[in-house]
């Protein structure tokens, strides 16, 4: 039987400006992980990816778990749940966020919409409501526009957007993310880490040379600061407009063995090493709510079959 690996990914555990959570995120996450532990074989991510590339067999119903961005609650909430359930996990970190040299634009934009002092704003030829469900949808549209800009273009556009929204207070986005000591604590507690780029740029929107340099610097700094090998990168956003052939080539040039997208699906022996697939989840939504009934149904059938 051909080996397959399903990789599940998350970002946060509890609510952030960008990723709101209804109810208890940690309770929802624990429920998801307990269900996966019962239905599947949860394996270390990089070990499983290496096995696929080498044509070696994986356990039946192989599943790996990972988190992107380095939110502080990954350490404070997700890690204790993983330890309690005795499950491995991998955390993809951004050196620029760990050091505080860069900021999470998606969280700043989310704060600006949530705390805007205006009911609507005009920004780059479009009108954006700020209140209720319409405001949340407008934030999503604005984020989609920001996401496909270069880093330099985005910085100017974000400043303009925040100025027009005129939010009250301060985003305090820095408190949402780990620092280097938190990242070292993850490693000390036995969890794996990988790269999520140097500054969380949308790689495919940058030049091939800049992509390679960003990925190389991220890998080198993470290895130096955490004293562990960094062999896998999770591309930020991970969609087709964020990951190009140049992006995958840059990952190889920068020394990575594996690259992960957010393209929905499973991974097998023929899956390109720099184009792994993941299924991204929210901690407060069940598998049916996130469109994953077919995934858990498949796991259940395979479990029954042996």
Automatic annotation (TrEMBL):
It is found in: Secreted. InterPro entries: Glyco_hydro/deAcase_b/a-brl, NODB_dom, Polysacch_Deacetylase. The keyword DNA-binding does not apply. Keywords: Signal. One of its GO terms (biological process) is carbohydrate metabolic process. GO terms for cellular component: extracellular region. Residues 61-306 form the NodB homology domain. The keyword Signal applies. This is NodB homology domain-containing protein. The lineage of its organism: Bacteria, Bacillati, Actinomycetota, Actinomycetes, Streptosporangiales.
């Amino acid at each position: 039987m051909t080996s397959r690996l399903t990789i599940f990914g998350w970002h946060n555990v509890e609510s952030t400006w960008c990723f709101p959570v209804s109810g208890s995120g940690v309770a929802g996450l624990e429920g998801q992980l307990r269900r996966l532990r019962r239905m599947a074989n949860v394996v270390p991510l990089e070990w499983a990816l290496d096995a696929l590339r080498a044509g070696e067999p994986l356990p039946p119903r192989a599943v790996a778990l990972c988190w992107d961005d380095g939110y502080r609650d990954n350490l404070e909430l997700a890690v204790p749940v993983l330890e309690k359930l005795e499950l491995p996990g991998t955390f993809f970190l951004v050196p620029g966020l760990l050091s505080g040299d860069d900021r999470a634009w998606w969280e700043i934009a989310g704060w600006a919409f949530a705390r805007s002092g205006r009911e609507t704003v005009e920004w780059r030829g479009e009108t954006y409501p700020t209140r209720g469900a319409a405001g949340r949808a407008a934030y999503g549209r604005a984020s989609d526009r920001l996401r496909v800009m270069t880093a330099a273009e985005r910085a100017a556009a974000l400043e303009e957007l925040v100025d027009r929204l005129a939010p009250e207070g301060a985003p305090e986005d820095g408190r949402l993310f780990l620092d280097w000591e938190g990242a070292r604590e993850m490693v000390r507690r036995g969890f794996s880490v990988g790269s999520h780029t140097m500054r969380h740029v949308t790689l495919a929107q940058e030049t091939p040379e800049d992509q390679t340099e960003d990925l190389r610097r991220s890998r080198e700094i993470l290895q130096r600061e955490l004293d562990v090998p960094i062999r896998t990168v999770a591309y930020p956003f991970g969609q087709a407009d964020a990951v190009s052939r140049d992006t995958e080539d840059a990952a190889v040039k920068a020394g990575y063995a594996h690259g992960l997208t957010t393209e929905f699906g499973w991974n097998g022996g023929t899956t390109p090493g720099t184009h792994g697939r993941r299924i991204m989840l929210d901690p407060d939504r069940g598998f049916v709510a996130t469109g994953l009934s077919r995934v858990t149904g498949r796991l259940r059938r395979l479990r029954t079959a042996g």
